[in-house]
Amino acid sequence: MNSHFRSIIGLAIDSLSPDNGRNGFPVHHTLLGRNIWIIENLANVDALPEFGYDFFNMMYKIEDGSGAPSRAFAIRSGMGPSAAVT
Across the chain, where does the E strand assignment appear? Predict the structure, then answer.
């Protein structure tokens, strides 16, 4: 386990939701209440290394919306666009 701490700015997962939908969405409330974003339904997350990449999320801003479609991708740090995992 890594001995240093990192600030978390977001949660990106390859499932429908970090909550099960039956208990008031506590993960959503906790993270969003701390201004930590959530991206759901990602593909190819298992292709990412544990460290060493930059993650990008290009999303539409929908006025008064609770979510939005987006295009997410990662690029291995220092590798340039040819190293993208989408």
Answer: 10-12, 37-39, 53-59, 70-76, 84-85
At 36-51, the pLDDT tens digits run 989 999 988 888 888 8
77 DSSP assignment = T
Residue 41 tokens read as 């339904």
Q: Are both 38 and 52 inside the same structural domain?
A: no
Number of domains in the chain: 2
At 6-15, the pLDDT tens digits run 688 888 888 8
Owning domain of residue 53: 46-86
